[in-house]
Amino acid sequence: MRSSYTTLMQSKYFNPAFNSAIFDGPVRIYFAQFHEALALKIYFLIQQKLGAEMTKAKEVSKASGANILVMVYPTVDSFVLSFEGAVAKPGPLEVEKWHDDVVIGLRGPIEDENLDLLIETLRLTMENWRPAVTAPALALAEV
Question: What domain of life is recorded for the organism (predicted)?
Fold first, then answer.
């Protein structure tokens, strides 16, 4: 996202409980400090399982300024405030495009059995990520 952190703070996706973050290239994990163990687990799983995808995502992010935001909401209620349609849809996470960024919101701290779903969602997001700014920039880079 070429806009600032202030823009994110004023968006529907931000929660005041987010007082910590892990940035690794284009992936930004926002969480409340009491969910640090989960956030670190997510970070290490990304490192272990998505090496090739992260390389591509870093190129896309560098060309476009876009990011993939993983939001670990502290409660189901805070998650529902950010993802209006999530009330009707069960599941541990939601994915939405926000400008050129992609937001992956977790319905509260997810259980270990849902981490594979998150990693697969990140894999698919990275493989299919096409911010508007990158198409011409990547085409020029390939010439």
Answer: Bacteria
